[in-house]
Write a structure and sequence with these properties.
Blueprint (H helix, E strand, L loop, with lengths): L3 E3 L3 E3 L4 E2 L4 E2 L2 H12 L4 E3 L6 E5 L3 H11 L8 E3 L3 H5 L2 E2 L2 H10 L4 E7 L7 H4 L4 E5 L4 H10 L3 E2 L14 H7 L8 E2 L12 E4 L6 E4 L5 H8 L4 E2 L22 E2 L10 E4 L11 E3 L6 H16 L6 E3 L8 H12 L4
Helix pairs in contact: 1-6
């Protein structure tokens, strides 16, 4: 077949390579992925945020396989990934607010919750019985290529068991499902650029409501659109993916807002410190760069988890910009029921 040309910028060839502007992958890999998706099978694919566990969003059987493999609660809805705003309009009642947000931030790390069209040929499992649908257009050439060629939306939550750390590399997916009989086909697209899940907004009305902070900062949304974002009322209702109290968690317990850790713990630092004296200390960002910290968060928590310490202590993270999303993940990861 030769190499596949993606979006006039991205080539695909036999061996994966990463350059500043190009991603190389075999065309056979993509053709196999498309065949599996059309057959109702699961494919782990890269996005700019985290690796997603993709399935045909219009197939009950395929979506059920996602819930089974992840051991995900059936009441927790999934995000449907699309290729274009026009495709989203086929499945949802799009609002003027949603059109503005899509115009400014799609493709990108933004998910919108909209009213689902009753005629949309979508599996009810994707919405967990709700009348709404969470939609996103990922900003990654491999995901965009597959979505365009597949022609239907893909349900694609993070490619990891429920409540565990999200995968930002293909190797994380492989390890997460190594003992599973129904292991997904994995496309290695290199490390995820952002490493933090998408921001989720309820865009059904005139004012966006934040349901989950993520890779798109609220300040950026308000700066570019002039629209103020309201915070979710924080009641017990699940309105979108990513709202479970415990989520994104390592096996080792977390202790947050620790400025000076003791010597017998693992430590996730942020900013200049003299506390990092051994290998069980990792630096999210020595310069307090929140974008760098977001990209490093899950991979560093995963590495610290491997040291099998009694606790992972985490330095204070500021509550602005991407810090809001980082703290959201840390709080959910540290939540205990008792």
């Amino acid at each position: 077949m030769g190499n596949i040309f993606i979006n006039n910028k991205y080539f695909i060839s036999l061996k994966l390579k990463m350059t500043k502007n190009k991603i190389f992958l075999s065309d056979d890999t993509l053709e196999k992925a498309l065949h599996l998706l059309n057959s109702g099978k699961l494919v782990a694919l890269p996005t700019e945020t985290v690796y997603g566990l993709a399935a045909d969003a219009c197939s009950d059987k395929a979506v059920a396989s996602v819930f089974a493999l992840k051991e995900r609660p059936a009441f927790n809805p999934l995000i449907a990934h699309f290729y274009s705003p026009e495709q989203i309009k086929e499945y949802t009642e799009i609002t003027p607010l949603a059109e503005t947000l899509l115009k400014n931030f799609a493709p990108g790390p933004l998910t919108l919750v909209l009213n689902r069209k009753r005629t949309a040929p979508l599996s009810d499992l994707v919405t967990a019985g709700l009348d709404t649908l969470a939609v996103r257009i990922p900003n990654h050439p491999i995901a965009q290529y597959l979505l365009e060629k597949f022609g239907r939306p893909l349900a694609a939550p993070s490619a990891n068991p429920s409540e565990t750390l999200s995968p930002t590399q293909a190797s994380h997916v492989k390890i997460a499902f190594k003992n599973s009989k129904n292991r997904p086909f994995i496309i290695d697209g290199g490390p995820c650029q952002q490493g933090l899940e998408s921001t989720i907004l309820d865009a059904r009305g005139d004012t966006p409501i934040l349901l989950r902070p993520g890779g798109l900062a609220l300040e950026e949304i308000e700066r570019l659109t002039g629209i103020s974002v309201k915070l979710d009322p924080q009641d017990s209702k699940i309105r979108s993916p990513g709202q479970l109290k415990r989520h994104y968690a390592p096996k080792t317990p977390l202790k947050l807002n620790v400025k000076v850790p003791s010597t017998d713990v693992a430590y996730l630092a942020f900013g200049p410190t003299t506390s990092c004296t051994d290998e069980a200390c990792l630096q999210l960002s020595a310069t307090k760069d929140l974008e760098e910290a977001a990209a490093n968060l899950f991979s560093m928590l995963r590495k610290l988890d491997s040291f099998n310490k009694k606790v992972i202590c985490v330095a204070p993270i500021p509550e602005f910009g991407l810090g809001l999303a980082i703290n959201d993940r840390l709080k959910r990861a540290s939540y205990t029921k008792y």
